[in-house]
Each structure stands twice: as C-alpha cells, then as structure tokens.
Amino acid sequence: MGTEDDVPDTRVIGDLTVSEVRALEDVQARMDATLRRIGELEVERHRLVASVSGIEVESTRVLESIAARLNIPAGVGWAVDRDGTVRSVEP
Fold it and tell me: pLDDT of 14-41, one tens digit each?
C-alpha cells in the first residue's frame, strides 16, 4: 500500500467502507501487538539463556568444591546418588 506521494499519477478507484477501515486498523493493531510481544519474548529468552549460563558456572564451582573436599583427582569419574553418596565411576 502506498500513499498519494508514492505514486504521482493515480486516480481514485473507490473508497473503503467504515467497516473495512476498522477491519484494517484492527488487523494492523493486532499485528503490532503480536510483534511487540515477540520482541518481549525474545528479550526474556536472552535473559533465561544468561541465567542458565550462570547456573552452569555455579554448578561447576559446587562440583569442583566437592571434588576438592573429597580429594578426587581431576580426570577421575564420579557421580552423586540421590541420597548424597558419592561414588567413583569407571569409564
């Protein structure tokens, strides 16, 4: 859709009805709202990804602390049971 300034040689071919104008305005408003919401969700997604990264860093620190306290050498496999028991894991 263009404006009169976009196309210099135009002629009127008809007029929209009031209901058509309202329908177009409604569609545009819903499109704008949807695009705004998508933008908001994208920002939230980035925040959640950053949060996951932070949690992963924290998890690594906790696991390193446990390994240090239990004198588990680097490269040795280990796992934690649900009850908190730490067991060595053979590769």
Answer: 999 999 999 999 999 999 999 999 999 9
Q: Does residue 79 sit in helix, strand or coil?
A: strand
Q: Which domain holds residue 32?
A: 18-89
Torsions phi, psi of 90, nearest 5? -80, 135
The total number of structural domains that make up the chain: 1
Chain centroid to Cα 48, Å, comes to 7
Secondary element (H or E) of residue 89: strand 86-89
Cα 79 to Cα 26, 46, 47, 50, 61: the distances in Å are: 58, 31, 30, 26, 15
CA angle 79, 85, 89 (to 5 degrees): 30
CB 66 within 8 A of CB 76: no
Identify the helix (H) or strand (E) that includes residue 17. none
Which spans in 1-84 are helix H? 18-69
